[in-house]
Amino acid sequence: MPRVRRSRSIDAPQSELWSRVSDPGQLPTWWPRVIRVEGISGSGDRFTEVLRTDAGRDLRADFTVLEREKPSRWRFAQELGDDPFGKVLRSSETLIELDGSGETTLVTIEVSRQLRGMARLGGFLFRGATRRHIDEALETLEELHGSR
Hints:
This protein has a single domain, classed as 2-Layer Sandwich (Alpha-D-Glucose-1,6-Bisphosphate, Chain A, domain 4), CATH 3.30.530. The protein has three helices and seven strands. Helix content is 24%, strand content 43%. The model has no long low-confidence stretch (mean pLDDT 89). The protein has helices spanning 14-21, 27-30, 123-145, and strands spanning 3-10, 34-38, 46-52, 58-69, 73-79, 89-101, 104-115. The protein is α+β, with helices and mostly antiparallel strands.
């Protein structure tokens, strides 16, 4: 199962980062390719990302929150079915952890994916793409919060 875990220290209080990373409505401001989020349930435990591909096509991805421990841990899983993601993924989970001390917070993002069928042969490609994706998210968070 390709699993990628990346961390970065960001010069921002944990509570400030928690407000951004644990709110699905904030994903378009920092998570790569997300252009908007729809259908956020009243409790915030379900949401739909609308992603834009390199080819300019919009794709929808539904998610369920599995765990939310304020202000340090948020884990959600993609709901996979008969869609482009479900053809190559058996499961996909994202974990975001915050560990703050004062004005600095260590942000760790872990993405775990179980590949389906022939996609399993491309695990190293998935890891590389996921690593770049997470690094871009962390870089954007740092740009949004790290400059004081």
